[in-house]
Amino acid sequence: MISIAVSSQKGGVGKTTVSINLAHSFARAGVKTLLVDADPQGSVGLSLTRQSRLLAGFYDYLADPGIPLERLIVPTRLDTFSLVASGQASDYEAGGGGMGAHLARVRAFLRGASARGFDLCLIDTAAGLFGVTGDVIASSDAIMIPQQAEPLGIRSVPKLLEGLNRLRVMNPRLSVLGVCLTMVQNDLAESTEAAAALRQLLPPEMVFQTQIPRDGLFVRASARGLPIGVLEDGAGAQVVFDSLRAEIEAKLEPNSGHYVARG
Amino acid sequence: MDPIYPWLDPVEVRRLADRLMKPNREPAVTAADAGFGENFVGYATEQAPPILREEPPAAAKVVEPRIEPVVATPPSLPPPLPESPTSARGPFLDRIKRFRDWMHHNFGATGIFILDREGSVIFDESSHGRLHFLARSLALASRRPGASAGNVHVKIGAGATLEVIPIETAYGCLVLGAVVSESLSPASVTAVMDALAQVASPPPEA
């Protein structure tokens, strides 16, 4: 199994949208995928399951060693796609514990997911690179970073890189898949300029070619509690995430033993 | 006006990014190497209470020698010292060895090592070389913005805890790693920090 943290320095950059739709793309391709909501706001659960506020989830697992992983895994209509919600403990856990406090439980969670036959564990984290998010990154095989295409977001890149370099001391095997530009507005000069500036700033291999546009479809998909590809008119948007998936697959070492695509 | 570049240093950003994209040359810390076995219970970040400079240093206390086996349980306070590690000067290595003996006697430390701020080994008779990287990582991770690093400990096996104590000295920040049976109390950590800071202090001007 390979574990990928979807993380960013800044909030509101589209982590949850990327996580849900990317996980769905992998699952559609036959990869047995577990999407984990490690954001105390519980956005994945709120997006995809109406009863998410009743589900035990990731933060309950961190808080209570007695909870078996099976109790957390929520199947979907796609048999290769399962979820773990944020859980009930998230509210008080959000501010509790410094970096490293949950490392052992996060690693136990990932071992458990691997033992249950998942090929991919995609983890939607809270913004920032500290606390539980830091523990998730320090335990994952890889990280991808959604980055909103707007000037303020790009200015936060140095802090992001410093944080990732620090975390890589704790987790030397962490592979940085790259930065994915999100909410790109081709009709807005500031947005396209910010996207171009980021591409100029970072090494080419660090920025995904695929860009996620700002689109009303995402709002509609979220309102209906569905990945965008499931919408009647979502096929075009699904292509974007399939393209992102293909880029990630190309970056993952084919012989690493972590991940076997079944597509 | 350019909305991006005045806000950041492109050369520095590129350097950080290039470093991230390179395969890490640090030795991979596997679960076994790092001691993250089934017994690993996570880190505790316990900031030792501030050292009160107006108090006489522990090393200056005159105490009766104790003839006791190595303590099996963590002392809540450092017991009296049979010989202070800082009571006599001498070559640096000799002072460190006295400190090692003091750690062994008072806290049952089965091995200690000391790293400098670059992670280079200053002293190690612990035979726990594979814990150096873990200790440095823990020390880095325990840093708080605007504050000195606190001590952290991690259980590395049944009855064995690695205590990592970053200590500011005249030669910069040193990282002490000590394998003890159980984590040290905050008062003990303070005593250890004080003792090592004195051991690592330059000789007074004549």
Secondary-structure blueprint:
The complex is a heterodimer of chains A (263) and B (206).
Chain A: E1 2-6, H1 15-28, E2 33-38, H2 43-48, H3 58-63, E3 73-75, E4 81-84, H4 90-93, H5 103-115, E5 120-125, H6 131-137, E6 142-148, H7 151-155, H8 157-170, E7 175-182, H9 189-201, H10 216-224, H11 235-251
Chain B: H1 10-21, H2 31-34, E1 44-46, H3 92-107, E2 111-115, E3 121-124, H4 132-141, E4 151-157, E5 160-169, E6 172-180, H5 186-199
Antiparallel strand pairs in B: 1-4, 2-3, 2-6, 4-5, 5-6
Question: How does this structure look, described?
Answer:
Chain A has one domain: P-loop containing nucleotide triphosphate hydrolases (Rossmann fold). Helices cover 41% and strands 15% of the residues of chain A. Chain A is built from 11 helices and 7 strands. Chain A has a 7-stranded mixed β-sheet with strand order 3-4-2-5-1-6-7, sandwiched between helices. The longest helix of chain A is centred in the last third of the chain and has 17 residues, at 235-251. In chain B, β2 (111-115) and β3 (121-124) form a beta hairpin. Chain B has 5 helices and 6 strands. Chain B has one domain: YNR034W-A-like (Profilin-like, 3-Layer(aba) Sandwich), CATH 3.40.1840.10. Chain A binds chain B through residues 98-105, 107, 151, 154-155, 157-158, 161-162, 164-166, 168-174, 176, 190, 193-194, 197, 201-203, 205-206, and chain B through 3-5, 7-10, 12-14, 16-21, 24, 26-29, 31, 36, 40-43, 45, 136-138, 140-141, 152.
Helix content of chain B: 25-40%
The first-level CATH class name of chain B: Alpha Beta
Distance between the termini of chain A: 15 Å
Low-confidence region ranges of chain A = 259-263
Task: Summarize this entry quickly.
With 263 residues, chain A is of the alpha/beta class. Chain A has helices at residues 15-28, 43-48, 58-63, 90-93, 103-115, 131-137, 151-155, 157-170, 189-201, 216-224, 235-251; strands spanning 2-6, 33-38, 73-75, 81-84, 120-125, 142-148, 175-182.
